[in-house]
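tool=predict chain=A
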Amino acid sequence: MADTLVRFARLVGDFSNPFYAEERQRDIWNEASAFGLQLVLRLGLSAAVVTIWVVGEPPAPYVLGALALLGVVCVLTVGYAERLDVVLRAPERLLRLRLPPYLLLVVALAAGLLRASGGTSTPVGVGLLLGAVAGLVGLAADMHRSRA
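tool=predict ok
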């Protein structure tokens, strides 16, 4: 019996559609979907960075809300694949040349949020610190799990 995430993904993705019966179409759609997800991530992060640096603090809640939405989509995407025994977060896959641009965007966003809040905003500082710690703990847990 499939768990809730897998059932939800099958409903949203309409995987029983006859479109998925043909292997070539399915493979191309998988590549197109991966391209689209990566593009949305890069453009979403880039737009957040530009918005915070150009406009400043007023749009910060909206930027953070959009980033939360991106984060939820990414977590559900990775979670679905892992529920079906596809390992996506092995260190040899994570530590590639595509990771530094994401890291650079995240650092630029964090710096922009600090700058926009005047560098004295306790909620922004606490949020950045907690986010950094959570990210590092998650990365360490994934690396530990992949070695086991």
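The chain has a mean pLDDT of 82. The chain has six helices and no strands.
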